[in-house]
Fold each of these.
Amino acid sequence: MNRRRFLQRAAMAAALAGLARAEEPALLAEDDPKAKALHYVEDIRRSAGDQTHTCASCGLYQGEGKSLQGPCLLFPKRLVKASGTCSGWAPQM
Ligand code: SF4
């Protein structure tokens, strides 16, 4: 592969990586109005509720395996922390 072709491919790879990042949903902010309405917190230790009701154990959490964050059915186009919680927690089926 010549130098010119290598640089073209490197530029294409960088552009595709940028597109992939742009499509990744943003992390849900605790001060988002809907998050506040459901008392969402990123760290369950800051919640007075059941300490076993983390996002990771919630039936609405869509994150993979041991992911640190992932999608939630209650907050479309946002990611929630696996260690978080909210009043919408539901058992897994
Ligand atoms: S519904 Fe479940 S996964 Fe979504 S923020 Fe609340 S506790 Fe976390």
Note: Helices lie at 3-23, 33-37.
Amino acid sequence: MLLYENLANEFATLIGDGQMRPGDRLPSVRHLAQQRQLSISTVVQALRTLESRGIVEARPQSGYYVRGRTARCVDAPAPTTAALPVEVGVSRRLVDVLRANEAPGMVPLGSALPAPELLLAPRLNRLYASIARCQPKLLAGSSHGELSEAPLVRALMRRALEWGYPLAADEIIVTNSCTEAMTLCLRAVTKPGDTVAVESPTYYVMLQLLEAMGLRALEIPTHPDTGVSLDALELATRNGQVAACLFIPNGANPLGSVIPDATKQAIASLLAARNVPLIEDDIYGDVCFTPVRPRPIHAFDPSGNTMLCSSFSKTVSPALRVGFVAAGRRIGDIVLQKTLTSGKTNPLTQRVIAELLETRGFDVHLRTLRRRFADQIGRVRDGVARYFPADTRVTDPQGGFVLWLELPADIDATALHRKAVAAGIAFVPGEMFSASGQYRNYLRLACGHPWSERIDDGLRQLGLLIAQLK
Ligand SMILES: Cc1ncc(COP(=O)(O)O)c(C=O)c1O
């Protein structure tokens, strides 16, 4: 028997005997090579053999893990839609769900927030102190003339260049969060009663925004791997009924999909030709697991029809409340909206984030974060495969840190949520992600926290609660 086969068989036996369990990490390639005095290529071949037998799986930038009972992937929806625009009415129920999820001591599978220890609060504290000391005038006055601090605009432009495209300084406005950026864009291009196309399922705060502004939602079928359906979008925008689109092309919430470049290009051209403004939320762009950082649709749209919104809530701190919009040709409207809504975003905070983005350590931080998220997602998927009914389907996200699950058709995830909250477990039921009441047997699990026995136990209990509802 060849050396690599020996090694593969040894691990297959350990796993088969239950000495290594689903979700356990195999030693690193380097470690195994040193320990067994084998070449790196022999070890890699052994691990690939185990992978092709379906015994282990590779997780991006993290290593090889023992696979659980296979978590089946969520099906793609039909590519076309006959859906009609609907009034949105999720806000009140959503407030109740989110409040219940935030009670102290809940198992943290609810909010899509990274665990504080994965983020950069200590470094932020130091930067605030030193920048406030060196530049006391920053907090002495404000300006409506210059809404964005030049160092932050430069830092944002430099980062976009690294992903392979130029952002123009004069189209960037710094905002108080990604939510504010999207709000300003919606205000600039819609009026009450208009219809906005959204992904289905989509991030519930987007539905809340539409509701608050008296806008209707048109849900476009969205593929768990490749994002929003181009065919359905083409159909929906034919007759002028769509006033704007609001999409998450990179690492969508809740699906984790990334739209391929060719489709991004086609969406940009289609919407520009039909003069339908696109508001894109790129908040998960820096935490995608694709080989290179995916570009936003904005990069494919020389016409200036796309408004790119983002923030640092998922990578630096959700408490920072700083984001931005690159508004393309609608920059004048966005400047007006920002001035009317909240004026200039705190200049000290702008300088702090500018300085942080310029440090070499920031890219190292992003790499670590992506590895942690991929690892956490893998472990929660393993837990779902271990404890949930065999016919549960789950996404295999390409970015972000949430999982979207389809439970057996007779399970009401909202009823499950009530029981789960009483048992101290948070998650978000699927119907919060649809304006038309779809996804009653779906749910979203957030994977922002490092794996722990508590999370394992929470998933086990959730599995038991689902079994009771069947
Ligand atoms: C897709 C998406 N956009 C925006 C936000 C919120 O961003 P911010 O805190 O900058 O408003 C979230 C947070 O969950 C999100 O998932």
Note: Residues 112, 177-179, 203, 248, 253, 281, 283, 311, 313, 318, 323 surround pyridoxal-5'-phosphate (CB under 6 Å).
